[in-house]
Amino acid sequence: MLKKVLKGLEWYSKQHRIMRPDDANIVGNVHGGTILKMIEEAGGIISTRHCNTQSGDRCVAALARVERTDFLHPMLIGEVAHVSAELTYTSRHSVEVQVNVMAENILTGSKKVTNKATLWYVPFSLQNVDKIIEVPQIEYASPEQEEEGKKRYEAQKMERLETKERNGETIIPVISPDRQTKEEYTVGCSQSSLIHLVGPSDCTLHGFVHGGVTMKLMDEVAGIVAARHCKTNIVTASVDAINFHRKIKKGCVVTVSGRMTFTSNKSMEIEVFVDADPLVETAKGKYRAVSAFFTYISLDKDGKPLPVPTLKLETQEEKKRFEEGKVRYLQTKAKRQAEQERQQ
């Protein structure tokens, strides 16, 4: 357990919310994007609270990255979501928060862990939105715990730099695929986009979009791609690391685009990009704000996994992305098997 370093420091936070019909899909499974939004809200509260425990500029913690997040069990309408967040590491300019989500059936009292997530936040001054505030440091129970946190910090920093190399890739928005000309189960047949005007309710005190709002839109697009490919009930199985490259300001038009990159027998990987286009400051031009990979599975009416139709590849670029997705799939599978063996 972490020790407090500042008097009155709140390093642990918990929230509760009952899941309603508008939080879920047509068969009653809560949208992955809804859960991601709750996770980000919990992380944002605790990191902003921590960064304002010192004197000086007031600030708001902005989401910079979400590590890979697995959806361990589905959450259903009527269940209560318990979202707990804890500070686990601080660098000079960033905060690591670990969030756990538990679903409670209030009729039976049964509980299940649905998600575990790690998020990284960076605090920005309320007086100067481009000024990053120095983070109050926390103490650790042991030097080993601090060293482990430092390793996680360095690893995510390196991965963010690697992701930026893909950031220049363009994707043409497709609101409704032309199924008359596109062959079934191809990338073009399921590729989809959403366009959203950023309003005040989407934003932080700075006037920039909440990370949770962006993740919810990304999950919606990825879900549309998966549903168009399988034509069945689909649910989010996991989200690879989500990198927030640049802030999105109030008044921007965001285009969220998704395309299928890989399919295995029971899962499909969808790459999602978020591009922001300022309506007022048009000189800045359109830019890539966020990118991530979502993994979905197809379910039958009883909630059991169904085989996923194989993705048909038409171009060399699609074949290249498929092979890259296969590597990610096999790496994840190997990690999961190693974890299971450790627990036995």
Keywords:
single chain; 5 helices; 344 residues; alpha+beta; six-stranded antiparallel barrel; disordered N terminus; globular
Q: If you had to describe this structure to a student in words, what would you say it looks like?
A:
The longest helix is centred in the last third of the chain and has 28 residues, at about 315-344. The chain has 5 helices and 13 strands. About 25% of the residues lie in helices and about 30% in strands. α1 (about 30-50) packs antiparallel against α4. A hairpin with a 6-residue loop joins β5 and β6 (about 110-125). The protein is of the alpha+beta class and about 350 residues long.
| Rg for CA atoms | 20 Å
Structural class: alpha+beta
The total of helices stands at 5
Spans where pLDDT lies below 50 across 5 or more residues: 1-9
Order of secondary-structure elements = EHEEEEEHHEHEEEEEEH
Biggest sheet: strand arrangement? 2-6-3-8-12-9
Largest sheet: 6 strands, antiparallel, barrel
The portion of residues forming beta strands comes to 25-35%
Give the termini separation: 25 Å
- Total E-strand runs: 13
Helical content (DSSP H or I, runs of 4+): 25-40%
The average pLDDT score comes to 90
Q: What spatial form do the alpha-carbon principal axes imply? A: globular
Concise structural overview:
This protein has 344 residues and is α+β, with helices and mostly antiparallel strands.
Outline the fold blueprint:
Elements: E1 12-18, H1 32-51, E2 59-66, E3 69-71, E4 80-90, E5 95-104, E6 111-125, H2 143-164, H3 187-190, E7 192-197, H4 211-230, E8 233-239, E9 242-244, E10 252-263, E11 268-278, E12 287-299, E13 305-306, H5 316-343
Antiparallel strand pairs: 1-4, 2-6, 2-9, 3-6, 3-8, 4-5, 5-6, 7-10, 8-12, 9-12, 10-11, 11-12, 12-13
Helix pairs in contact: 1-4
